[in-house]
Write a structure and sequence with these properties.
single chain, alpha/beta, Rossmann fold, 19% strand, binds adenosine-5'-triphosphate, binds magnesium ion
Length: 152
């Protein structure tokens, strides 16, 4: 944790809360190295697609997967730009396949992250809950330090 060469992993889904997590990490830790991670869930797992629902041809599935991958990379790039603008040394990572919390925990291991930062809530933003399922599960399952940032 004291080792400043280890990066901080910021889990980013493009939500306001996740942006607040970037801002908080920058305010507290800039010019730290950070990895902005977006997890894109496998399309197979989308209930109405592929093996689970409407049959989709392999080629179509490939096109959809490519589009999802590109979308995830674009979100990661936006997050990294925000981080860079706030003085952090940012790189990006896109992981495929869920559950999202488990991909985040795994990415933290692979990058030997000193800290995992996430927003309290994300895109689905059910306001009556203090924590979303991803932030709760990461806090429960990771042995690394976790910073959960509450947006305004
Ligand atoms: N696909 C994802 N990739 C990377 N980080 C994510 C992803 N989804 C969520 N996060 C991180 O987790 C934080 C909390 O989001 P979470 O998904 O837990 O809340 P929610 O969307 O409000 O609720 P839920 O998804 O449980 O309905 C986000 O601010 C972001 O930091
Ligand atoms: Mg969510």
């Amino acid at each position: 944790m004291a080792d400043e060469r280890r990066p901080i992993l910021i889990a980013y889904d493009g939500s306001d809360c996740a942006a607040a997590a970037i801002d908080k990490v920058a305010a507290e830790f800039a010019p730290r190295k950070v990895v902005v991670l977006v997890v894109s869930e496998e399309l197979d797992k989308v209930p109405f697609l592929g093996t689970a629902g409407v049959p989709v041809e392999a080629e179509t599935m490939e096109l959809l997967t490519d589009a999802a991958r590109k979308g995830a990379q674009e979100i990661a790039d936006k997050g990294a730009e925000r981080a860079y603008g706030l003085g952090l040394e940012a790189t990006t990572a896109v992981y495929e396949g869920g559950p999202v919390w488990s991909a985040i925990v795994e990415a933290a291991e692979e990058h030997d992250a000193a800290l995992i930062a996430l927003g309290a809530r994300g895109l689905s933003g059910v306001k009556r809950l203090v924590l979303g399922s991803v932030s709760s599960a990461v806090a429960q399952h990771s042995k690394r330090s976790v910073l959960i940032v509450h947006g305004s």
